[in-house]
Amino acid sequence: MEFSAEQIATLLNGTVEGNPEATVNNIAKIEEGSEGKLSFLANPKYESYLYDCKSSIVLVNKDLELSQEVSTTLVRVDDAYGAFAGILREYQKLRGQKFGIHPTAVIEDSVSLGEDLYIGANAYIGENTVLEDGVKIYANTSINDNVKIGKNTVINSGVNIYHDTVIGNNCTVHSGAVIGADGFGFAPNDNNDYEKVPQIGNVILEDNVDVGANATIDRATIGSTYIEQGVKIDNLVQIAHNVRIGKNTVVAAQSGIAGSTKVGKDCMFGGQVGISGHLEIADGVKAAAQSGIPSSIKEEGKIVQGTPAFDVMDFRKSYVYFRKLPKVLSELKK
């Protein structure tokens, strides 16, 4: 599908500088542009690429001052990076426009199907499940009984969604994710053997939640493991039973949150952060990569680092001294 510079400018409330009839049908980085491609410039350190860029159209900020002439057509917008992200979202939607049900899909008779659905090859949809309008279920996905999936949600190939899970509108679940598996609940008996504690709760994802590839979100023992609106969960993240994660929190790859911990809204956790169970993490807390959080953080907006994690500025000061310890020890021995 082709778009002209004039159409893009109208869509983004921008202005055209150059040929308004220039067209694009694909996207490229500014340093790898070619005819028919759309690129963008937001970071000033890449400005030199603009003057040799071969892309037909480049999005730039309105306040960009050129140091030399350009051969490409520019579309000036308030925020080139944000505008390009919006274009990418629309481009992804167009690429994902699949509809219909593959003949090898298995759909139980009691399933409620909305309109404009896509269900791929070898997918299984269990009894009493509800798929609302615009849902896309890709190949080899298993959705068990009594699941509800909201409008325009995308479930990619190879996902397993256990019974009673509720997923909101406009969510994305990437390949290999498992939602609703049993929480890690075992109790030792008199012989010190571990007996399984039944996990009879479920998982609830509100609207606009993203779940990365091979991430796992366990069902609650009783009640719900609850992921609030706008949460973004990266690949290979483990969310344990009865965890609650607040609105717009982001969790980077290989992090883990242990059972019954309550995380506030607008938090950010770097890669490989580990959070112990039964804690409370206040709104806006940020934890640097590989931090270990063994106790509750009650102060909103606090930034922590280290294992055990403590205030990031104190951590950095301490690390300076830590690095000097070999020298100090050598002098002490002398």
Secondary-structure arrangement, i.e. CATH architecture of the largest domain: 3 Solenoid
CATH class of the largest domain reads Mainly Beta
- Write down the overall geometry: flat
What fraction of residues sit in β-strands?
Answer: 25-35%
Low-confidence stretches: none
The CATH topology label of the largest domain is UDP N-Acetylglucosamine Acyltransferase, domain 1
* Annotated CATH homologous superfamily of the largest domain: Hexapeptide repeat proteins
Q: What is the CA–CA distance across the termini?
A: 75 Å
Could you say which structural class the secondary elements and strand pairing correspond to?
alpha/beta
Number of helices: 4
Structural topology:
Elements: E1 3-4, H1 5-12, E2 15-17, E3 23-24, E4 26-27, E5 37-41, H2 47-50, E6 57-61, E7 73-77, H3 80-95, E8 100-101, E9 106-107, E10 112-113, E11 118-119, E12 124-125, E13 130-131, E14 136-137, E15 142-143, E16 148-149, E17 154-155, E18 160-161, E19 166-167, E20 172-173, E21 178-181, E22 186-188, E23 194-196, E24 202-205, E25 210-211, E26 216-218, E27 224-227, E28 232-233, E29 238-239, E30 244-245, E31 250-251, E32 256-257, E33 262-263, E34 268-269, E35 274-275, E36 280-281, E37 286-287, E38 292-293, E39 303-305, E40 310-311, H4 312-333
Parallel strand pairs: 4-5, 5-6, 6-7, 8-11, 9-12, 10-13, 11-14, 12-15, 13-16, 14-17, 15-18, 16-19, 17-20, 18-21, 19-24, 20-25, 21-26, 24-27, 25-28, 26-29, 27-30, 28-31, 29-32, 30-33, 31-34, 32-35, 33-36, 34-37, 35-38, 37-39
Antiparallel strand pairs: 1-3, 2-7, 22-23, 39-40
